[in-house]
Design brief:
2% strand; mainly alpha; 8 helices
Length: 198
């Protein structure tokens, strides 16, 4: 929802949409984020639940924050996205094979940590995270994030080569990784428009 309103604000030049996206992000930061542990919680209804976020929760929130940053240029949202990406990497990233496990591995009743390899109605956490990492790497000129994105894409190379339609969002990340980034920097003092005489 944050992504949708942030993108809508950009495309339609509608400040109200940006305000809604910002309010939603602030609510999430205030009510579903524990700053002492730097973790997200999964849901809120009359109060925060005790269920910690899964990999897809982090991936989609980070995506929303990056879209909000691009719409508002408020660096607070970029910093929050970086903080959540570090937590997602710490809790869910598979250092050995790449990609993101769905769960953190803290729950002892879960015997096998799985990675979603299908972008269904909702894209897999690894697919969204790969693009998030590439965007963050570009914003921050961070080679480690770019490498983690490549490792994530490589983890699903077999699926992408044999059944690419199973992971369309990962294909978006792959395409992004192969394109040359374009950056536009606008520097200088902001000029105020003089009111018209008529």
């Amino acid at each position: 929802m944050i992504s949708a309103y942030a993108r809508g604000a950009q495309v339609l030049d509608e400040p109200r949409y940006l305000e809604i996206a910002t309010r939603a992000a602030k609510f999430l930061q205030a009510n579903l984020f524990d700053p002492s542990r730097k973790i997200l919680y999964r849901n809120y209804r009359g109060g925060r639940s005790d269920i910690e976020g899964f990999a897809d929760d982090y991936a989609f929130v980070i995506q929303g924050l990056l879209d909000l940053y691009e719409a508002s240029f408020d660096v607070e949202w970029l910093e929050f996205a970086v903080q959540l990406q570090e937590t997602q990497d710490r809790l869910f990233f598979d250092d050995k094979n790449g990609g993101y496990f769905s769960t953190s591995g803290k729950d002892e009743s879960v015997f096998l940590r799985m990675k979603d390899d299908n972008d269904g109605a909702e894209p897999a956490a690894s697919s969204v995270a790969a693009l998030n990492l590439l965007r963050l790497a570009q914003f921050r000129d961070d080679k480690q994030m770019a490498e983690r994105a490549r490792k994530t894409i490589d983890a699903f190379a077999t699926t992408l080569s044999h059944f690419p339609s199973a992971m369309p969002q990962m294909l978006v990340a792959l395409d992004y990784s192969l394109s040359k980034p374009r950056q536009i920097v606008i520097a200088g003092r902001r000029m105020r428009r003089k009111p018209s005489a008529g």
